[in-house]
Amino acid sequence: MSTELGITDGIAEAADDFLKYPLYKVVSVFTEKMEVIPAIDELRASGFASDDIEAYCGWQGAGEKTYPDTTHGIWDNFIHAASHVGPSRTYLERYEKHLQDGDCIISVKVANKEQKATAAEILHRHTDERVTYFGLLSTDEIR
């Protein structure tokens, strides 16, 4: 797998079943864009399907980017829907700022505690930023 940034320009269409709130997802910011592809490669090598991984780079006004071999979604929906959920708002405002600054974000759908731990471990290896889990009724920072 290549570590070159295989970025496609343009805004991706959301799938019909796209969740507006990042329910059961582990999310982190990547200020080093060259770490996005290696993180995606490692997630896929660890058993996460392409449909379980979303990657965004930059903000819509600056030309949203998406990565190959990940599910494409619209980050605006994520921000809008989750901004109405208590403490999650703080995280989402931080993500919005990072996207406006041109940084990247990876979101990984997880089905159990083992996947949650594996996804968090992989993201931590590729970024020094916070890794956050969005559950049904809680938002937790994973260390």
Task: Give a quick precis of the structure.
The protein is an alpha+beta fold. Helix content is 31%, strand content 20%.
Write the layout of secondary structure elements.
Layout (H helix, E strand, L loop, with lengths): L7 E2 L15 E6 L5 H10 L7 E5 L7 E2 L8 H8 L5 H13 L3 E6 L3 H14 L4 E4 L4 E4 L1
Antiparallel strand pairs: 1-4, 2-5, 2-6, 3-4, 3-5, 6-7
Structural descriptors:
single chain; alpha+beta; seven-stranded antiparallel beta sheet; 4 helices; disordered N terminus
What can you see in these coordinates?
- The chain has 143 residues and is an alpha+beta fold.
- The protein has one domain (19-142).
- The protein has four helices and seven strands.
- Helix 1 (36-45) runs antiparallel to helix 4.
- It is globular and about 30 Å long.
Largest sheet: 7 strands, antiparallel
- How many domains make up the 3D coordinates? 1
**Could you tell me the strand content as a percent range?**
15-25%
What is the residue-averaged pLDDT? 74
Give me the number of helical elements. 4
- N/C terminus separation: 28 Å
**Which radius of gyration do the C-alpha atoms yield?**
14 Å
Regions with pLDDT < 50 over 5+ consecutive residues?
1-20, 60-65
Number of strands: 7
Overall geometry comes to globular
Major sheet strand order: 1-4-3-5-2-6-7
Helical content stands at: 25-40%
Which structural class is indicated by helix and strand composition? alpha+beta
| Element-by-element helix/strand order | EEHEEHHEHEE
As an assembly, this protein is: single chain
